[in-house]
Every structure is written in structure tokens, then in C-alpha cells.
TrEMBL record:
<feature type="domain" description="Acyl-CoA dehydrogenase/oxidase N-terminal">
    <location>
        <begin position="61"/>
        <end position="132"/>
    </location>
</feature>
<dbReference type="InterPro" id="IPR009100">
    <property type="entry name" value="AcylCoA_DH/oxidase_NM_dom_sf"/>
</dbReference>
<dbReference type="InterPro" id="IPR037069">
    <property type="entry name" value="AcylCoA_DH/ox_N_sf"/>
</dbReference>
<dbReference type="InterPro" id="IPR009075">
    <property type="entry name" value="AcylCo_DH/oxidase_C"/>
</dbReference>
<protein>
    <submittedName>
        <fullName>Acyl-CoA dehydrogenase</fullName>
    </submittedName>
</protein>
<keyword id="KW-0560">Oxidoreductase</keyword>
<keyword id="KW-0285">Flavoprotein</keyword>
<keyword id="KW-0274">FAD</keyword>
<dbReference type="InterPro" id="IPR036250">
    <property type="entry name" value="AcylCo_DH-like_C"/>
</dbReference>
<dbReference type="Pfam" id="PF02770">
    <property type="entry name" value="Acyl-CoA_dh_M"/>
</dbReference>
<comment type="similarity">
    <text>Belongs to the acyl-CoA dehydrogenase family.</text>
</comment>
<feature type="domain" description="Acyl-CoA dehydrogenase/oxidase C-terminal">
    <location>
        <begin position="262"/>
        <end position="409"/>
    </location>
</feature>
<feature type="domain" description="Acyl-CoA oxidase/dehydrogenase middle">
    <location>
        <begin position="154"/>
        <end position="249"/>
    </location>
</feature>
<dbReference type="Pfam" id="PF02771">
    <property type="entry name" value="Acyl-CoA_dh_N"/>
</dbReference>
<dbReference type="InterPro" id="IPR006091">
    <property type="entry name" value="Acyl-CoA_Oxase/DH_mid-dom"/>
</dbReference>
<dbReference type="Pfam" id="PF00441">
    <property type="entry name" value="Acyl-CoA_dh_1"/>
</dbReference>
<dbReference type="InterPro" id="IPR046373">
    <property type="entry name" value="Acyl-CoA_Oxase/DH_mid-dom_sf"/>
</dbReference>
């Protein structure tokens, strides 16, 4: 009996040993397989990146900018590389790239042409995710498959009297049992006249509609949908932007993306991804501007020295590079949070977009200045970058609107904990606490206070992200953190103080006096109402 028991124990031990050995072998094989997969993915991403760069290098974007039209082969190049399905699932024909890899490709495209990168952001980050989140729409897989192959998708949110503020949208969607009737006007809609599908947002009306916002997928060829005005914008001249007139456009109710729910959730999620995309565009344009200016400064001589050897210019280039490092780190942190949470963090996405767009504009301006008359000449790429960069501070929420929102959320008891959690996730809980303490006692309804609080949040997050070290492998991360600290110190010298009613009235009187003087001056005629109130815009 004892011998049988010991034999059983021995078998059990040997069996356990076999299982342990098998598990160890499986773990080793799985680890090797995962590493092989990662290496394969890295090789694929590297090949895609280098192939895209090689093809874009052959195109004349300067000539396209003059003609206000993309190079004829651009669309086919982007489609061939799969860039119309950057993050779309593989089973739907997409590349299924992680967000960071998609962002790298958008930045690379923006370094050649911001208009081309804008096309990728509108299609991949704004419109397509709304369609992917609506599996109930008819032939959804077929629509997405076509989109990943080059059927462009537009995102129609902006209106003349609302901008992109959802609470002021007036376009209506009359909800019937089997149909939706859309009426209204949308302006500055990128890709509108080239699109196969348009994601349109309107205010629901009809029984039980409750005035909620709805997203509706509209066929570009739908009866009653008219493309009217083409906006001749300061920059982004390669991409078409139109006014859309919805004149009782009827769509099957199955094409309501949000069904019976408020559609603002889907729109907000897309816009947050769009802000990350705009930040990536800013990074690419910023990098190209530095390259061009540095190349010029390396050859241009000031006396016996080259420009780049001048101590002032050395420091200027050093600051430009550090700004680039901060933006890269902020983008990496934004992508990391998307991977961890499945969706962008609204506060970090907004802060990243603000910083990238503002600093891209600053660097482009500094680079134009360094080149002097050559920088102002349309024959050099810097003039184009300067014009294109200007829209980034407006796209997907103007800087002031985003800063006000960040400031309001920081100070509001309803959302303060959410921002506190974000600061905590990047190891900066003390920064959040100090910011709250600094703002205590200020008027939370004052616009200047909200902007200031938004900047404190933006730069505080940037400082935390760069200082964390895990979002940037650059050797100059410490110097980048010092730059952000310096920006914070400068910001605090302009901290808003309580303004008396008399001070505010004085500002109003100053403006009124100027307008009266200008109206009486032949040298400063006031523009007529007919000129200011263009029918396409108002």
C-alpha cells in the first residue's frame, strides 16, 4: 500500500514536473513568437514609412499649392500605401496600426505638405471612426472597405453661426419612422466635394427627438445635397473646403449613426482623435521648418562666421529643437493613454493640440525671420509652411476655446477630479495641487482667469510628461523640461488680477474712441457691412 502510494506520489510529481516544464517551454515559445511578431510589425512599419517618404519626395507640392489642387497622383499614392485605413481593422481592409505609428505617418506626410496630412486626419480620425462605431448601418463593412481603399469620408460639423460648438448647431434632422430629413448649411468642410460619404451632425426634431444631436451618414450623391461655395483659404490650398447645403435631404433612418442616443459622444471622441492628429501635423511642419532654416543658416555667412555659429541663433535653434521634443513627448503620452484606455483623454488631447499648434506657428515665424527676404518669398517652402501652420491654432477647436475649456474643467468641482487623475497618471499630483492653490481666490467666471488656468494645465502637463522620462528617449529631455519650466515662470508674470468695473469700462471706452476716430478718418475707412457680411459665411 505504501509502495503504491509512493509510486502515485512519484507519478504526480513527475506529472507536475512535466506540466511545469511544458508551461516553461510554452512561455519561452510564446515570448519568442511575440518578439517575432513585434519585429515583423516594426519591419512592416519601417518599410511603409520609407516607401511613403520615397513616393512623396517625387511630388511637386509647391506647384500644387499655386494651383490649389493636389498633385494628380497623390490620392493613388496614399491609397496604395493603405493610408486611408491607418487604424481601421484588418478585416475591413485597414492597416490596423497602433495610434503612435499612425501619428508618425501623419507627421511625415505633414513635413511634405500639411494639406495632404489634413486629408488623412479628416478621413481617418474624424469621419471613419464614426462609421466604424455604428455596426447597425446597412453594408457597414462594404462602406469601410471602400473607405480604406480611397473612398474619401468628410466630417460636417461646422456652421456659420455656431462654428464647431455643438450647442449652437441649427441644422435639423427631422426623425420619421423610416426616414430622416436633413436641412441646413455647413461651412469649411474639408474634402466635401471629393468625398464619397459625409458624416453630418444635426439637431434632431420630431416626436421624442428631445433636440439631441445626431450623426447621419449621407451619400455625397444624395438628392438635395449641394456643394456650393469653395473657400479660398489662407493656407491648406491643396485640399478642397466647401459649403454644403442640405435641402431636405432624405436618408434612411438606418443611417443615423447614433441611433436613438445623443450623437455628441461619437463626435467628441472623433474630435479628440482629430486634435491628436492636428498635433501630429504641427510636429511634422515644425520639424521641416527647422530643417530648412538650419540648412540655410549653415551656408549663409554673417561676416567671417556662418549664421549658425552666431550665439544668438544657436540658442534660437536650441529652443526650437526643445519645443519639438516636448511636442513629441506629449504626442507619445496621448497615444499611450489611448492604448491603455481605448479612447483619447480629452484634457491631454486638448493640451497637446494647443502646445503643438502654438509652437509650430512660433517656430515657423522664427524660421521665416531667419531667412529674411528669402523666407518671405513664395519660392521657398517656408512661406507655405508659415501659411499652413496658421490654421492649426484654429482647427478642431481654437486655442482660446480649448484653453478656456481646460481652465473651466480644472476649476469646476464636477471635473476637477478627472484632471487630478490625469496629473496623477503622469506622476504630477503635486503640480495639480499647486495649480489649484494658485488659482484659489480668482474669479472663475472671468475669461482671462480661464485662459490662464488653461495654460497652467497645458504647461503643467507638458512639464510632467517630459520630466517623467518614459515618453521621451531624447538626451535633451532635461533641457526640454527646463524650457517648459521657463515658459511657466513667464506665464506667471502675466497672472490675471481682479479687474474693477472701472478698468473694464475704460477698455470699452478705448475701443469705442478708436472706432469713432477711424470712421472719421479718410486714411482708415471702416469696411462696409456689405463687405464684412459675406453671404457665404454669415
Amino acid at each position: 500500500m505504501c509502495s503504491q502510494a509512493s509510486h502515485a506520489d512519484e507519478l504526480a510529481r513527475s506529472g507536475a514536473g512535466f506540466i511545469v516544464g511544458l508551461m516553461a517551454m510554452y512561455t519561452q515559445v510564446y515570448a519568442q513568437f511575440s518578439e517575432a511578431q513585434e519585429r515583423t510589425a516594426e519591419r512592416r512599419a519601417a518599410a511603409l514609412y520609407s516607401g511613403l517618404i520615397a513616393d512623396l519626395s517625387q511630388l511637386n507640392f509647391a506647384d500644387a499649392d499655386d494651383r490649389r489642387a493636389f498633385p494628380p497622383t497623390l490620392h493613388s499614392i496614399l491609397a496604395r500605401h493603405g493610408l486611408f485605413g491607418l487604424t481601421a481593422p484588418g478585416e475591413h481592409g485597414g492597416l490596423a496600426l497602433p495610434l503612435q505609428e499612425a501619428i508618425d505617418l501623419i507627421s511625415a506626410t505633414a513635413s511634405f505638405d500639411v494639406s495632404a496630412a489634413s486629408t488623412l486626419v479628416i478621413h481617418n480620425f474624424l469621419a471613419l471612426p464614426c462609421i466604424e462605431a455604428a455596426p447597425h448601418i446597412p453594408e457597414q463593412k462594404h462602406i469601410i472597405w471602400g473607405a480604406t481603399r480611397g473612398d474619401l469620408c468628410a466630417f460636417a460639423l461646422t456652421e456659420p453661426g455656431a462654428g464647431s460648438a455643438p450647442r449652437h448647431i441649427e441644422a435639423s434632422a427631422l426623425m420619421r419612422e423610416d426616414k430622416v430629413r436633413i436641412s441646413g448649411r455647413k461651412i469649411w468642410i474639408g474634402l466635401a466635394d471629393w468625398a464619397r460619404w459625409i458624416v453630418c451632425f444635426a439637431r434632431a426634431s420630431g416626436p421624442d427627438a428631445k433636440g439631441r444631436l445626431v450623426g447621419v451618414l449621407v451619400d455625397r450623391q444624395a438628392q438635395g445635397l449641394k456643394v456650393t461655395h469653395e473657400h479660398r483659404t489662407l493656407g491648406l490650398r491643396g485640399i478642397i473646403q466647401n459649403t454644403l447645403e442640405f435641402q431636405d435631404v432624405e436618408v434612411p433612418r438606418a443611417y443615423v449613426l447614433s441611433r436613438d442616443q445623443d450623437g455628441w459622444g461619437a463626435a467628441s471622441s472623433s474630435m479628440n482623435r482629430g486634435r491628436i492628429g492636428v498635433a501630429a501635423m504641427g510636429l511634422g511642419a515644425l520639424e521641416r521648418a527647422i530643417q530648412l532654416a538650419a540648412s540655410y543658416a549653415s551656408h549663409r555667412r554673417l561676416g567671417k562666421l556662418r549664421m549658425i555659429e552666431n550665439s544668438y541663433i544657436e540658442q534660437l535653434f536650441g529652443q526650437m529643437v526643445l519645443r519639438r521634443e516636448v511636442v513629441k513627448a506629449m504626442l507619445a503620452a496621448s497615444c499611450r493613454l489611448v492604448s491603455a484606455q481605448g479612447a483619447p483623454n480629452v484634457y491631454l488631447a486638448s493640451a497637446t493640440k494647443v502646445l503643438s499648434s502654438e509652437w509650430c506657428g512660433l517656430v515657423a515665424d522664427q524660421c521665416v525671420q531667419l531667412l529674411g527676404g528669402r523666407g518671405y518669398d513664395e519660392g521657398t517652402p517656408l512661406a507655405k509652411i508659415y501659411r499652413d501652420a496658421r490654421i492649426l491654432r484654429i482647427f478642431e477647436g481654437p486655442t482660446e476655446a480649448l484653453l478656456s475649456h481646460l481652465g473651466r474643467c480644472l476649476l469646476s468641482k464636477a471635473t476637477r477630479d478627472e484632471i487630478a487623475d490625469l496629473f496623477r497618471s503622469v506622476g504630477a499630483a503635486s503640480v495639480h495641487a499647486a495649480t489649484i492653490e494658485e488659482l484659489s481666490g480668482l474669479d472663475e467666471t472671468d475669461g482671462a482667469v480661464l485662459i490662464y488656468a488653461g495654460w497652467l494645465t497645458t504647461l503643467g502637463l507638458a512639464n510632467a510628461v517630459v520630466s517623467a522620462g518614459c515618453f521621451s528617449v531624447s538626451a535633451c529631455a532635461v533641457a526640454a523640461a527646463d524650457l517648459v519650466s521657463s515658459e511657466l515662470a513667464t506665464l506667471r508674470t502675466r497672472a490675471p488680477a481682479r479687474q474693477s468695473v472701472e478698468v473694464r469700462n475704460r477698455a470699452n471706452r478705448t475701443l469705442t474712441t478708436f472706432l469713432q476716430d477711424a470712421a472719421c478718418s479718410i486714411r482708415s475707412p471702416v469696411l462696409t457691412d456689405d463687405y464684412l457680411k459675406l453671404v457665404q459665411y454669415v
